[in-house]
Amino acid sequence: MPHSTSAPRLSDAGWPRARAGATLTIDLDAIRANYRTVRGLAAGAECAAVVKADAYGLGAARVAPALEQAGARTFFVAHVDEGIALRPHIAPTSRIFVLHGPLAGAEADCVRHDLIPVLNSVEQIRDWRTLAHGLGRTLPAAVQLDTGMSRFGLSEQDLASIDAEPDGWRGIDRRLVMSHLACADDPSDPASARQRDRLLAMRACLPAAPLSLSASSGIFLGRDFHFDLVRPGAALYGVAPNDSAPNPMRPVVRLQARILQTRTVGPRDGVGYGLTYRPTSARRIATIAAGYADGFLRHAARDGRAWLGTQPLPIVGRISMDSMAVDITDAPEPLTAPGAMLDLLGPQHGVDDVARGAGTIGYEILTSLGHRYHRAYVADGAALT
């Protein structure tokens, strides 16, 4: 899809609403508002946008143009092929950084599709340098430093090794020097300050280049962590940056699952695999069309809830691959007949709430949402499908 300066053009919206068991609504206005919120907090730094994992499962082809409208000009993905898929949906002048860098042999694809690799190892630096020499030109790249997370990036020894080589950094145009915080979601953890100080010390071994340290949670640690560029990801999609304060981000997603069947069960009955739920009195049970194949973990039923408006309805029994059971006894019968929709994610119960009930984090909930929904995108107050 060619880039357009008009409103984002939408491609396939998933299954037709009438045939889908659930509808996932994604609020592009909320994503843009969240971008403006974090950009305001990091005033003075460029605010990029992380759209890896298909914009955390919400559809990068739709989300990235919306973020571009809000002012984003730099995007981050994890893999080369994510960058290749994203490139036609944003302006040719917008930058795409590939966090994992290229696998050996994929360097030319970065050049071909105008992607900027994040070089994480001595081997990646050498391969990128070799390609630059072969093309007879300087190639842009970011360099990642390991400041204490022990995941990606160059150590002090790696920097010394590159500096000792005859070609060193020749042919590599360092557009960014970056690292990543391990404990930014806990503002009281001193590890973040240690990583910041180590980044500054290691940066002194490199020629001058813009610095980047903070993703979503790090932005909320304050100006000392912003440097030249910040990289919000999960916060754009409504995930709380930390648990120490109310979530300042607007909710982005709503997931409504259809009631397929209802029945009344009594004390002699069991519900679901293993018959783990046995009521002590007569209960009305609805089977709804979402399960662990749709991103709801099998063990999450212990504390899980569906919602009818503001009314919580407990999930009972084990979650199946394609369905789950909900106790609708206390809900009005006309509103819970087959075909009615219950909220699994929504205004009363967001991704962080679902994550707590499942013993995980909002990132995992978002990126686990399946592809069997009808997807409805909302922008400028209107539904785009």
TrEMBL record:
Record-linked InterPro entries: Ala_racemase, Ala_racemase/Decarboxylase_C, Ala_racemase_C, Ala_racemase_N, Ala_racemase_pyridoxalP-BS, PLP-binding_barrel
Similarity section: Belongs to the alanine racemase family.
SUPFAM superfamilies: Alanine racemase C-terminal domain-like, PLP-binding barrel
Organism lineage string: Bacteria, Pseudomonadati, Pseudomonadota, Alphaproteobacteria, Acetobacterales
Keywords: Isomerase, Pyridoxal phosphate
Binding residue positions for substrate: 151, 321
Entry's EC annotation: 5.1.1.1
Modified residues (N6-(pyridoxal phosphate)lysine): 52
Protein name in the entry: Alanine racemase
Gene Ontology cellular-component annotations: cytosol
